Amino acid sequence: MVRMELRVVLATLAIFIALGGIGLSIHGSLYYLDREIWTGVILIAIGIAGCVTMLTLWPRDLPDRTPPEHPADEASPHEHHPHLPTQF
């Protein structure tokens, strides 16, 4: 679970990088600054690629590929859990 949380944090950082790129591109467009426009476009592409990469489901995230130190939840679907409401 810690690995998943780190990926969410990195995806969030990637989104902020993309938002900064959008701001930089708009600033460059307003003042006719070609270098800032292209830098912003590159930042947008890096941010989107980083977010997609971090939030993509990887093969080791599947339940049958869970590492041995983190056993998969093998509870029966008919087993009652006290924190879940009962179904009628």
Q: Whole-number radius of gyration?
A: 21 Å
Which consecutive residue ranges, at least 5 long each, have pLDDT under 50? none
Class by SSE composition: mainly alpha
Number of strands: 0
End-to-end distance: 32 Å
Quick check: average pLDDT?
82
Number of helices: 2
The fraction of residues in strands falls at under 5%
What is the element string, with H for helices and E for strands? Answer: HH
Shape: elongated
Largest sheet: none
Helix share bin: 55-70%
Question: Explain this structure to me?
Answer:
- Helices cover about 60% and strands about 0% of the residues.
- It has about 90 residues and is an all-alpha fold.
- It has a domain at about 1-60.
- The model has no long low-confidence stretch (mean pLDDT about 80).
- InterPro entries: DUF2964.
